[in-house]
């Protein structure tokens, strides 16, 4: 008879399990596309500067010292390190969930029941010792150990742990990606500072040239070869250039302060080597193959790990539809009198039991969590594909930019050389009355602008060398 009941319970549990399994919606698992073009251009060179350590790529010792300081004291980077620590603790928490939970319990209470109740009437006739009734009111003392354990038969807890591990590794890659961005930002700001220093030097040189031209105009006026208008025009040009000098000095201050902020310190002068401008980066860039981005770019690896975690989340959500098997146990002592508390075996209590629980009705919450996990997995696929596409576009743009900037620089260098010669020629012609003062002014103005543009182009070239290093995934290793 007992065996028949047991079999009915088992059959009933199997039917419930089958009904639960049949009602699980199907997941739509999207496969990511990892394919990339064969090359960035016609070149098929596999050499890649991403493998070069940043201290070898940025050879300027002043810049290296700034980067070193930033990697230790940058607040945003340190915030990210704490997020990594949070992810690491999440792994420990998940691992603890599929181990037994054991606790110790101590309790004391007192109860007074009515004499004219079933329990009160029974207690009145119960004798612990001959001639003694059950105490009234009845105290109770308990000391016991309890344990609960969910058996991970569907790997729900193990998959949740694996998802936590993937997210931890993704946070590490996120930190690496932040490092590449921080290094690039400091390097670009440093080269901007060098460019401003060079522009300030040019302005000072131009002020000297314009002052010399002003003296010539004053002499010409005394000789009645020019009017007072020419003198005023040259004086205005000198004042304009001197005003430009203070604009550049303000830009230098702001750039220094931006670097100091990245270094996590209050404003102070930035040590630098102006002679390193345009000379401290490699002349030849090896971009390698686009497929190498998948291994070199931290943001791509981060997106891939987040996709792995999202797929594990689907398995965890799916396991919620299945029955959960739990085991509980207790062992301890319980008595109404402390004197009897440790009497063995009379005061000894123990229990062990198991339960199998499966959701049957009103599973909307579980279905919604499962659908959300599926949607997040699809979202993670698109994010991963977008990261690969974005990385390729960034590299392609920088490679094209470097080529065009070099051509632009060559032409601007010729322009500067021609206008620099034009200053001397216009001055000589003006002295011999073969050119008017406006031609001298315009030539000086054009020469100053062309030299500024040349420095801007050179700074853009250095920024492109920094950005291509970052785009290829260099700097974090």
UniProtKB/TrEMBL annotation:
Gene3D superfamilies in the record: Outer membrane efflux proteins (OEP) (2.20.200.10)
This protein's record includes keyword ATP-binding: no
Keywords: Lipoprotein, Membrane, Palmitate, Transmembrane, Transmembrane beta strand
Topology term for the membrane: Lipid-anchor
UniProt signal peptide: none
Database matches in Pfam families: OEP (PF02321)
Subcellular localization, as worded in the UniProt entry: Cell membrane
Molecular-function GO terms, alphabetical: efflux transmembrane transporter activity
GO cellular component: plasma membrane
PANTHER family referenced in this protein's UniProt entry, alphabetically: OUTER MEMBRANE CATION EFFLUX PROTEIN (PTHR30203), OUTER MEMBRANE PROTEIN-RELATED (PTHR30203:SF30)
Record family assignment: Belongs to the outer membrane factor (OMF) (TC 1.B.17) family.
Identification of the protein by name: RND efflux system, outer membrane lipoprotein, NodT family
Organism field: Chitinophaga pinensis (strain ATCC 43595 / DSM 2588 / LMG 13176 / NBRC 15968 / NCIMB 11800 / UQM 2034)
């Amino acid at each position: 008879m007992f065996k028949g009941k047991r079999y009915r319970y088992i059959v009933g549990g199997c039917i419930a399990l089958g009904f639960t399994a049949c009602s699980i919606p199907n997941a739509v698992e999207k496969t990511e596309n990892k394919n990339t073009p064969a090359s960035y251009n016609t070149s098929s060179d596999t050499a890649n500067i991403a493998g070069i350590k940043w201290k070898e790529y940025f050879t300027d010792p002043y810049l290296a010292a700034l980067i070193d300081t930033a990697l230790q004291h940058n607040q945003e980077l340190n915030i990210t390190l704490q997020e990594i620590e949070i992810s690491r603790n999440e792994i420990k928490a998940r691992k603890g969930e599929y181990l037994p939970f054991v606790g110790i319990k101590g309790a004391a209470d007192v109860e007074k029941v009515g004499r004219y109740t079933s329990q009160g009437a029974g207690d009145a006739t119960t004798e612990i010792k001959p001639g003694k009734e059950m105490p009234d009111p009845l105290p109770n003392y308990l000391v016991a150990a309890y344990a609960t354990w969910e058996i991970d038969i569907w790997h729900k807890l193990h998959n949740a742990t694996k998802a936590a591990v993937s997210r931890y590794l993704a946070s590490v890659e996120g930190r690496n990606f932040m490092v590449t961005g921080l290094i690039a930002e400091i390097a670009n700001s440093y080269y901007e500072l060098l460019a401003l220093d060079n522009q300030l030097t040019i302005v000072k040189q131009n002020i000297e040239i314009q002052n010399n031209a002003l003296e010539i105009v004053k002499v010409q006026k005394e000789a009645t070869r020019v009017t007072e208008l020419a003198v005023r025009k040259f004086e205005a040009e000198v004042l304009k250039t001197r005003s430009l000098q203070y604009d550049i000095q303000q830009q230098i201050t702001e750039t220094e302060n931006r670097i100091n902020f990245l270094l996590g310190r209050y404003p102070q002068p930035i040590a630098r080597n102006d002679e390193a401008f345009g000379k401290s980066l490699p002349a030849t860039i090896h971009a390698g193959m686009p497929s190498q981005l998948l291994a070199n770019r931290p943001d791509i690896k981060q997106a891939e790990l987040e996709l792995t975690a999202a797929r594990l989340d689907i398995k965890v959500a799916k396991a919620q539809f299945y029955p959960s098997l739990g085991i509980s146990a207790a062992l301890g002592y319980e008595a109404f009198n402390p004197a009897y508390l440790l009497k063995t075996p009379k005061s000894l209590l123990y229990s062990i039991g198991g339960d199998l629980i499966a959701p049957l009705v009103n599973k909307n919450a579980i279905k919604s969590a499962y659908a959300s996990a599926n949607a997040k997995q699809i979202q993670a696929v698109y994010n991963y594909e977008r990261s690969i596409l974005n990385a390729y576009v960034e590299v392609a743009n920088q490679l094209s930019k470097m080529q065009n900037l070099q051509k632009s620089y060559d032409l601007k260098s010729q322009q500067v050389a021609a206008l620099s010669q034009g200053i001397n020629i216009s001055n000589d012609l003006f002295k011999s009355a073969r050119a008017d003062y406006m031609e001298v002014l315009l030539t000086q103005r054009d020469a100053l602008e062309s030299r500024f543009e040349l420095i801007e182009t050179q700074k853009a070239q250095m920024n492109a060398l920094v950005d291509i290093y970052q785009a290829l995934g260099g700097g974090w290793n």
